């Protein structure tokens, strides 16, 4: 059965309906390529009897794009064959575009990546006016570029400058916005209306040619040699480097493909695009990013970590204890998904202040036209701000988000638990204290779990679900459902101090602070963090967290470790933190002074006194950037392996997704474990051993890593 249905009507209008057999969505795989080749040959035969062509889809979406399974397998040795295959596919699309007959895309659902590229190869595009439909070229988010003509057609349609956000940032838009941007030509009210409008275009335009195939074509907004455009393009690579920090080749190759392609005719531009596309497909960064952001993320979203045999739950009423930054964020994220929230604090005033956080976020959406006043009011009506435990009556789930203090957490647990519905869940948003320890205060430890959110909750997608010793599989499965119900990504970990993300995050900030204590210049440390691919440097993030909180967590951890009969081994960073807080009263951003200065009317900058207090001129001058970058990435990857070895982490998928979405581990690597795989397990272990010799035992390769290094076996 062909992937493209060929129906030539008595009115001589040919409808090509893409319907990949055995798939829920249409993708650009071998079956599609074969079908397109056959279709092009058939069109050639029937051309005299065809007045126009409509390209439609039999699926809910129009077309989902390239087949990532295929792309992921392409190796350097396959590059030549791969280029030929891509050029062959594009030649069939080009043939349909240049027959002289009008070709219309009838876009009934989302058209992303290769799907939008098929539509761009048509002369006219009609889309159903539905805000849930997305149009865009998101390949860059997986380390790739639009390789089906997107870097050539879109700039020729809307201009280079207007095309760049779609090409280099992966911007996606709904049909209304796509119409405004010039990506589609017309909106339709329904599927029937869409086909009617497609036919009307064919009737009105018996002969069709793309603008770029017409004599005297000029680029909208100017070609690269146009003085105004040339001036902008001259600084574009530097601006791009500022954003990518040299970690992401895809945006740079997209810029090259679009600009170089704009200086030649369309067909040569298409060949240029294919070359850059093949280079990215066989490159390691795309392998890392597609492996993690597509295959592993989808495995998690499909419920790979959710225990089987538990009926899916829909939550209706959730209690949040503590209306500070975290509690307010959890309340907002829950209420926006249609769930009633009771936001409780010690006073109604505090609770109302927490609720105002949601009000401010929603007001911004209203001001930007992304929400109506009625929708805002509806969401706010779901949040009840209170100081009374009685209002928690009937909650399916209560999440405590109070200060990191075991005693306080025990108190609020015992106060709120009796108000839960039968079999209700009590969750702690602790970032470090073991769940088994906190569950000691619970009357029902089987229904007690950790739900560790990340700040700011409205922006951070991850929730770390922590399973205590007595937490039941049913509680885990239902908690997983809640996290997905509020649109977050769940990773499941077993109990330990600091769990997974806080442990790994701690190694990142401590390593940066430790470097400062060694005499390395703070600017070098911050630059190394950013150039390694972290979102910000370790000193800046320490200020955000606050050094007093870091001291508090450390002191609590030391107390609990010693109480359990263990020995506390101080990290070299501890002395630097104590010097900053105890001797210089520099506690972090919230206190207005930390590693950085925070002037009222200016940009934050590193505290100049750091040089006097810590910097060793010789060490600062001779240290190598790669050494600093290695320390930052290696220490986090090593701690992640320890979490796998100790059974804190259950899967490699959770390790990679959790490290990126939870702590911002360099996304170009594909995650902390993928960083090891792509480095080479044996080579990574050797480098870790060398770092351990120079900087101490914390870099020593764990036993699990050493075992894998013997056979150079990647983590899977």
Report on this model:
With 716 residues, the chain is of the alpha/beta class. Helices cover 51% and strands 12% of the residues. The strands form four sheets. The protein has an eight-stranded mixed β-sheet, with helices on both faces. A six-stranded mixed β-sheet has the order 1-2-3-4-6-9, with helices on both faces. It has a three-stranded mixed β-sheet with strand order 5-7-8. Helix 13 (325-335) crosses helix 14 (348-367), helix 19 packs across helix 21 (538-545) and helix 22 crosses helix 23 (573-583). The two termini are 36 Å apart. The model has no long low-confidence stretch (mean pLDDT 96).
Largest sheet: 8 strands, mixed
Strand content: 5-15%
Class of secondary structure makeup: alpha/beta
Helix share of residues? 40-55%
- Distinct helical segment count: 30
Distance between the termini: 36 Å
| Rounded average pLDDT | 96
Poorly predicted runs of 5 or more residues: none
Instruction: For the largest sheet, list the strands in their spatial order.
Output: 12-11-10-13-14-15-16-17
Task: State the total count of DSSP E strands.
Answer: 19
Q: Per the principal axes of the C-alpha atoms, what is the gross shape?
A: globular
C-alpha Rg, in Å?
28 Å
